[in-house]
Amino acid sequence: MKQKRSFVLDEEENEAVQLFSELGMPKNLAKTLLYVSEVKECCSADIEQGADLRQPEVSVAMRELRKRRWITKRDLKKKGKGRPVHIYSSTKPLSEILKTFEQEKLAEVEGVKKDLSKLKNIIVRGKIGA
């Protein structure tokens, strides 16, 4: 990552976002995942700036990443009154997350293969399209 005021996704990371997207991961989820995996800890505002996302997009992405247990959240109390700031960090290296994502995609491919095979059998038996 290149550093300006905060970290921002660089060209290579944007290419990775594009590839994740082409493989079926929502772009905002990929951007958030890559940003958080590159920093030790961050808050939503850091992600918004660094990944070029809006606050609601970050919230939706974080909900999914936490559901998958790829990201953890802790609250940091502010001095005085006010809501705590959510601090996020990655639970495992990006390489391990990629392995999990790869397994999910390969399972989807197997499912598609099975469905295509069933469809071929139905059509070959001559009940459809005769």
How do you describe this structure in short?
This protein has 130 residues and is an alpha+beta fold. It is built from 5 helices and 5 strands.
Terminal Cα span:
58 Å
Shape: elongated
Q: Report the mean per-residue pLDDT as an integer.
A: 89
- How large is the count of helical segments? 5
CATH C-level label of the largest domain: Mainly Alpha
Task: From the alpha carbons, calculate the radius of gyration and give it in angstroms.
Answer: 20 Å
Which structural class is indicated by helix and strand composition? alpha+beta
What number of domains?
2
What is the number of E strands? Answer: 5
Q: Uncertain segments of ≥5 residues (pLDDT<50)?
A: 1-5
Superfamily (CATH H level) name of the largest domain = Winged helix-like DNA-binding domain superfamily/Winged helix DNA-binding domain
Major sheet strand order? 3-5-4
Q: What is the helix fraction of residues, given as a range?
A: 55-70%
Largest sheet: 3 strands, antiparallel
- Succession of helices and strands: EEHHEHHEEH
CATH topology of the largest domain: Arc Repressor Mutant, subunit A
Portion in strands: 5-15%
CATH architecture of the largest domain: Orthogonal Bundle
What does this structure look like?
It is built from five helices and five strands. By secondary structure, the protein is α+β, with helices and mostly antiparallel strands. It has two domains: 2-91, Winged helix-like DNA-binding domain superfamily/Winged helix DNA-binding domain (Arc Repressor Mutant, subunit A), CATH 1.10.10; 93-130. The strands form two sheets. It has a three-stranded antiparallel β-sheet. A two-stranded antiparallel ribbon has the order 1-2. The termini are far apart.
